[in-house]
Amino acid sequence: MEIVAFGVQADERAPLEKAFAGRHQLRSLDVVINRDTAPIAHGYEIVSSSVNGDLGADVLQTLAAGGTKMITQRSTGFNNIDLEAAADLGMTIGRVADYSPYAVAEFAWGLALAVDRRIVLAAHRTRNFDFRLDGLMGRDLRGRTVGVLGTGRIGEAFTRIAHGFGMHLLGWDIAENPNCLALGMTYADKERLFAEADLISLHVPLVAATRHLVDRAALASMRNEAILINTSRGGLVDTAALVGTLKTGKLAGVGLDVYEEESGIFTFDKSLDVMDDDILARLMTFPNVLVTAHQAYFTRDAVGQIIDATVGNVEDYLAHRTNENMLVTQGQPRAAER
Length: 338
What we know:
The protein is α/β, with parallel strands linked by helices and about 350 residues long. It has two domains: about 1-100 and about 300-335, NAD(P)-binding Rossmann-like Domain (Rossmann fold, 3-Layer(aba) Sandwich); about 100-290, 3-Layer(aba) Sandwich (Rossmann fold). The protein has helices spanning about 10-20, 55-65, 85-90, 100-115, 120-125, 155-165, 180, 190-195, 215-220, 240-245, 280-285, 300-320, and strands spanning about 1-5, 25-30, 45-50, 70-75, 90-95, 145-150, 170, 185, 200, 225-230, 255, 290, 325-330, 330-335. A seven-stranded mixed sheet has the order 2-1-3-4-5-13-14. Strands 8-7-6-9-10-11-12 form a seven-stranded parallel sheet, sandwiched between helices. A hairpin with a 2-residue loop joins β13 and β14. The protein is globular, with a radius of gyration of 21 Å. This is Hydroxyacid dehydrogenase. GO terms for molecular function: D-lactate dehydrogenase (NAD+) activity; NAD binding. Keywords: NAD, Oxidoreductase. It comes from Streptomyces gilvosporeus.
């Protein structure tokens, strides 16, 4: 079987091709899938996509017309896929139900510490032999309150690290995690969490109910010296509202590994282009904001698990089996996704 994989990162290519070697022929492409690149997949029954791909109805129709019957996405999130259109087209859609939660949780803490202690600014200064400490004063995290929105596997891992720092734990989720409760977490409504937390970290999926979870009202209710971290999905934060808040001098810092309009920008070299996204360009001017390009998951451990799950999805599809990763199977949505 010949498979085409879109959006393959340079460090991902070798292990991905090794995993499929001896099983199937794999064509690895660095371009993401969208309406312009979808015709490349003509003749391929199986397509592997990355989280930054566009798998809207029009792209899926192009793929189906070219003979594609199965798409396996190398990510947990799937908000970029029109599942209803896929079902109507009789396609099978897979993803990666889970991978190392520590990869994302540890990176979220890396952002939090870098923002709190101004580590990036300090590193830039010392490279220029500027060893002043002006403007670099941070805060101890011990004894302060962390607010964790979403206490699933990643949120729990983040909470365990917060517990190690000696922080007070506030959580918000549709269901309480007993492991987080055992660590001393208090669950509260999101309004209380936004108002009381010194550090807020987002670990919820992007669905209709969570889009712009952090909106203008939420930002207004936060403490002036709060730190906001998002390693989940960009659409959780109203970025225009965030820029407006930062312009007032509110918030001690922000760490973002995701951005709501990141498609076509993140994971690409835009250094020689004119940045026409005014909101992102303005966001990058704030000295207390740190933006990374959706790399929180990007560890050898997590990528290896993602690749193993992707291979498993392909093998199960070819053997007419289903698994927990399948969102749509030959046009039939999984019950949980209906």
